[in-house]
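Researcher: I'd like a structural prediction for the single chain below. Treat it as a standalone chain; there are no partners to consider.
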Amino acid sequence: MTWIVLIISGLMETVWAAALSASHGLSRLWPSVLFVVALLLSMVGLAYALRAVPVGTGYAIWVGIGAACTALYGMTVLGEPATTARLVCLTLIIAGVVGLKFLH
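Model: Treating it as a single chain, here is the predicted structure.
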């Protein structure tokens, strides 16, 4: 259950990052509300997971999931460039996250 919560918390990091961008500096109400809710859920989930997962592993996985999914969101939804180099870097992040999970 802890690992599922950690993964969902990493995905919530993507939600709050996208909502923060859509809020235009917290000047739009609903994206700002989504940002705050997703941020709280992400942090609470991370805090829960860190009760059973070492902080270095848990935080790295949380950040890795959030960073990779946010970058993929930018490329697929926002039209950011999906170059070979960027995709290779994302693959390395994902490989690192998977590696940390299995080496735990």
